[in-house]
């Protein structure tokens, strides 16, 4: 499993535009994913690619007047995140009391007239999103 470093970036001032450009600058040096948070963002990079000084430099080149840049980091040990999600977050659903949709790893599946077993993967969702109206 690949270990990642989470870089917590706090910028003063900060708004959506500044956070978006900060994420783009970090993406340009190898950061893979981002989560907006109050006052900045959380950025993730493979630990073997993490370079604090490179991150500082990428953020110093933002085209805004930034009075303060605060960085903290922590290592996140690699896990099989898909497996963790499957075990902890994906739960069976029952549609109209007649159709149960679940995966093969669920054991306490509600009784229903129709039983559909589908294992969630990247190319197939879980049915837990809302439907358009």
- CATH top-level class of the largest domain: Alpha Beta
What is the tally of helical segments? 3
Mean pLDDT: 87
Q: Tell me the span between the first and last alpha carbons.
A: 41 Å
**Any low-confidence stretches, pLDDT <50, length ≥5?**
none
What percentage of amino acids are in beta strands?
25-35%
Q: Which structural class do the helices and strands define?
A: alpha+beta
Determine the CATH superfamily of the largest domain.
Answer: YebC, transcriptional regulation domain
Overall geometry comes to elongated
Proper CATH architecture of the largest domain:
2-Layer Sandwich
How would you describe the overall organization of this protein?
The chain is an alpha+beta fold and 133 residues long. It has two domains: 4-76, YebC, transcriptional regulation domain (Alpha-Beta Plaits); 80-133, no CATH class. It has three helices and seven strands, in the order βαββαβαβββ. Strands 2-3-1-4 form a four-stranded antiparallel sheet, with helices on one face. The protein has a three-stranded mixed sheet with strand order 5-6-7, with no helix packed on it. β2 (33-37) and β3 form a beta hairpin. The protein is elongated, with a radius of gyration of 21 Å. It starts with a strand and ends in a 16-residue tail after the last strand. The model has no long low-confidence stretch (mean pLDDT 87).
Summarize the model shown.
The chain has 133 residues and is of the alpha+beta class.
Q: Notable features of this structure?
A:
133 residues, Alpha-Beta Plaits, 4-stranded antiparallel sheet, 3-stranded mixed sheet, 3 helices, elongated
């Amino acid at each position: 499993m690949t270990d990642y470093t989470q870089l917590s970036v706090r910028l003063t001032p900060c708004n959506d535009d500044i956070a978006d450009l900060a994420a783009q600058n970090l993406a340009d040096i190898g950061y893979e994913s981002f989560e907006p948070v109050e006052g900045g963002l959380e950025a993730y990079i493979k630990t073997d690619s993490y370079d604090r000084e490179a991150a500082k430099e990428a953020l110093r080149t933002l085209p805004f007047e930034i009075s303060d840049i605060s960085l903290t980091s922590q290592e996140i040990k690699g896990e099989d995140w898909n497996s963790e999600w499957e075990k902890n977050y994906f739960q069976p659903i029952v549609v109209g009391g007649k159709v149960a949709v679940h995966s093969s790893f669920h054991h306490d599946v509600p009784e229903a007239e129709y039983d559909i077993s589908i294992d969630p993967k990247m190319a197939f969702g879980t049915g837990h999103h809302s439907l358009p109206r």
